[in-house]
Amino acid sequence: MTLLPTSVRAASPPPAPTPRSRRRLRRQSLAGWGFLGPFVAVFALVFLAPIGYALYLSVFKDKLIGGTSFVGLENYTQALTDPRFWEGVGRVGLFLAVQVPVMLGIALLVALAVDSGRLYGKAFFRISVFLPYAVPAVVASLMWGFIYGTRFGLVGNINDAFGITLPDPLSPSLVLASIGNIVTWEFVGYNMLIFYSALKVVPRSLYEAAALDGAGEWRIVTSVKLPAIRGALVIATIFSIIGSFQLFNEPSILQKLAPNAITTDFVPNLYTYSLSFSGQQHNYAATVAIVMGVITAIVAYTVQLRGMRKG
Amino acid sequence: MSTTDLPGPSRPTDRRGGTPEEAASASYRTEKEAEAPSYRTEKPSGTTVRAARRRRPPSTPLNPRPSIPLTLVTGLVLVYSLLPLVWLVINSTKDQRDLLDSFGLWFGRSMNLFDNISRTLAYDDGAFVRWLLNTLLYVVVGGGGATVLAVLGGYALAKYRFPGRRAVFAVVLGAVAIPGTALAVPTFLMFSEMGLTNTPWAVIIPSLISPFGLYLMWVFAAESVPDELLEAARIDGSGELRTFFRIALPLLMPGTVTVLLFSMVATWNNYFLPLIMIKDPEWFPLTLGLNAWNAQAQTAGGEAVFDLIVTGSLLTIIPIVVVFLLLQRYWQSGLSAGSVKE
Amino acid sequence: MTTTRRSRRIAAAAAAVCALALTATACGSSDTSTGASPGDVKSALEKGGTVKVWAWEPTLKKAAADFRKKYPKVKIELVNAGTGDKQYTALQNAASAGSGGPDVAQIEYYALGQFTIGKTVTDLAPYGASQHDKAFTKGPWTAVAKDKSVFAMPMDSGPMALFYNKRVFDKHKIAIPTTWDEYVEAARTLHKADPKLFITNDTGDAGATTSLIWQAGGRPYKTENTDVKIGFEQDAGTKKYTATWQKLLDEKLVAPITSWSDEWYKGLSDGSIATLAIGAWMPANFTTGAASAAGDWRAAPLPQWTKGSKDSAENGGSSLAVPKDAKNKELAYAFIEYATTGAGASARVAEGAFPATTADLDSAKFQETKFPYFGGQQANKIFAESARNVGTGWSYLPYQAYANSVFNDTVGKAYVTATPLAQGLAAWQQASVKYGNEQGFSVNK
């Protein structure tokens, strides 16, 4: 089990012997920050400073006419009561509830299948399923834009060939599912590999013991393999949750094809982008981003706690 | 592409297992090895274990045999993953006309792949090549730098006790939760103030941070570098830096390669940040360049070059796929140790 | 990794944050009035220097090359910094940062308002821009000039025309519509004859909608300094537009394909999108984007709201402006003047740009140009006629770029649900009013 807090504990060096402990601690401290320093410095520059600046921006208001003025927490009250923002939050919530389990489920099944050794061409499976992760979002959108086209795209081709009318994947009722499909496509392989690698190091002795007890293949999966890779499952879930809350590239690119289904406030991240980039409302956009960040952090943290407790 | 072309743990046995007899005898050998009590310590990679399991005639959890139904079912996911890529390959053989009016999943009237490639490379005074070189620069300096920082940082978190250590990752994870799109404007204003916009640094500096890389190296260092080794080196009077380079770094190599791969892919596919930071096509990465070509068809008087975009997309993917294939061996062993272990 | 290097980085980061805090309140205060004169422009040209241009219009390449030949001391750096919205965002960002922007920027007419009101572009009148007022056609000039100020120079224009696929119209023996009622009729006939054919495509496009309202005589926007009036409900032209367009939507006679997508180009290529009512700059896009349909398409005058009239409107078109933070404004103006007037403009027209200059519009060479793509038709005659008949008195909102960005959030509902178009426009108006008031304008008060 190497999810973060455990690994921290596991990774802690044994307590230092008391005699030299003071000097040791100082030396440890110095060397530790020495190694970590470069990361922290750059991190401060590209993450903390902009966040600090965003916090600063969030208490001001800048108007095209009238300039900048201090407004205190007004932007926050506005964000907390902004129906356009909460509608977007609801949408990513739904997305998260459906897409993340589906994606991780498929990834897990493929990982188990590859790991079971019961596939022909295992290496081919592994690399092929992973390939979409290497495709830049711009390119992926081009491909899926084609596939989703009801008139000239693949959906259209299928409709023509079979004389049927498939529902339009880019219609308002289906577009969220279509986006979910793209995200799933992009990240199934990535998650599959994380799971697969975790499965690879499950000690064989555990299987042997279970097999000797007469456990079947499925039984071994549920009672040996899955518990053994719980850490990977939890960390993949957390990163998927953060990814879902930050959903942006796919809706933003598909917006060109389905402008009426994907509105500018479709997901919170698109909303902040539109506020900032079309409306010049940098202050309010910063506020919405901060609120969204807090929500994400809370959800991710809750999942981590829950995931840990069961372990 | 066939299985045997792919490097990776299963390759040697794939080569070996030609006829059933050979396969059977091969698994007989490994079976005997597997029964040796010292098996786990002698063959820690686990490679031969599954190779052995795979070839055994009656399929049991311990001795699985390839199954056609399972392969077919999992094959659905494979088709799902590959179909859009097949579309890309097929369509990069078409000229503009075929692209617009022939069936998407089959070849057009003529074969234009090589013509498309040469035109893609030459269009706009060879802009594609320039963007490719830029991307390489960003990948090497940005992705490479991210790896260095993550390795050093992860090592520090795993092997030293110092104040603030526990807070670091919490802060990193919390910061990652803030949507990047909204931080773009503040970051832009800052970088502009520092005179970094429109320079390669505007892309490279933010690429230097890989939170997932830090996490991975932290876990990996905790697992793969024994404290006793470091302690012994210190007792011998080795300085901390020297200890790191002499003792720890070689042990960290698989994890390092993993992080390198992930940060390279991230930098290669980086789109949003350069979009805001770089306005001069001279410094565009490939993703921005392709998008600019795409946008060109959307402006009055602009030339529509869908054929070049599709071909360019294919060319953009190829290098990263090649790197995957070449390095997947390291990258899996790195991940295995990094993600989970009992 | 040494300690000094690390601490320097931290210090640099800290300095950057402080600098930000200072600029955040200080930006937007720099003045745009200068003591410039046409004479300064001349001496700037003699001195030479570099002009950085952000533009995506392709014929500017030619203008830049010619300019360099004429004034070897001046270097023109032509950069495509993104098109439309992306470039405006970059310009606004550069203006907030106070640096990093270009000396010359391409800005579409509809978006110019937000830059003039925020004083992020330079008044070009002191440099001699006002003397050109007679050189340009009415529509573009009124878009860039206000009172005694000239905020940009018209670079091209987009008087509207109807492009139609003659092959499709001939095959189904449909007459070219001259009124919008006939257009609806043609749409029905066409779609009935072959359900795969649509008279046009539309998924909600703010530019197209406002242009057609403009043609119908509607003037929903009125701006007087910071007093803004938005009135779609009472506007007669808007009513004409919604009544007609609602029929097309209700009967599903327009293809739900978004303009400029590759699907759209496919539709133009294979004839399933049979007409486009769009700006006269479209031929260049036809030639490259729908190459396989060469010979099928023709241009015709825009259908009319009242039989027998000749009303037209502008659709698209751009200007060149000088941002407030430009380093060498005299030189920047010199290039703009060259590229938009006289020989520079004519050279660009020869390259395929649609002129905003009356001299080019009226020239025999321009009017008699035969378009091989349109089967040898002298299409410019139709376009020039349209340019002369553009309705006067139209103005966009001073924040039209924002309004257009939320068009599909509001009016878009009419395209995907049973919401009537008029109701969609009312919602659009509401969103525009709200934003305007939040931004310190006095809208509909």
TrEMBL record, chain B:
Keywords: Cell membrane, Membrane, Transmembrane, Transmembrane helix, Transport
Disordered: annotated span: 1-65
One Gene Ontology cellular component annotation held by this UniProt entry: plasma membrane
Extent of Basic and acidic residues compositional bias: 29-43
Entry's transmembrane regions: 70-90, 136-158, 167-189, 201-222, 243-268, 308-327
ABC transmembrane type-1 domain ranges (all copies): 132-327
Cited InterPro entries: MetI-like (IPR000515), MetI-like_sf (IPR035906)
Cellular compartments annotated: Cell membrane
Membrane topology: Multi-pass membrane protein
Gene Ontology BP annotations: transmembrane transport
A Pfam family it matches: BPD_transp_1
UniProt superkingdom: Bacteria
UniProt similarity note: Belongs to the binding-protein-dependent transport system permease family.
Name of the protein this chain belongs to: ABC transporter permease
Species this chain originates from: Streptomyces finlayi
Automatic annotation (TrEMBL), chain C:
Disordered: annotated segments: 302-321
InterPro entries, per database record: Bact_solute-bd_prot1 (IPR050490), SBP (IPR006059), SBP_1_CS (IPR006061)
Record-level GO BP terms: transmembrane transport
PROSITE patterns for the chain: PROKAR_LIPOPROTEIN, SBP_BACTERIAL_1
The entry's keywords: Signal, Transport
Residues in the signal sequence: 1-26
Record-linked Gene3D superfamilies: Periplasmic binding protein-like II
Family: Belongs to the bacterial solute-binding protein 1 family.
PANTHER family with a match to the protein in the record: ARABINOSE-BINDING PROTEIN-RELATED (PTHR43649), BLR3389 PROTEIN (PTHR43649:SF14)
Protein name per the record: Sugar ABC transporter substrate-binding protein
Species of the source: Streptomyces finlayi
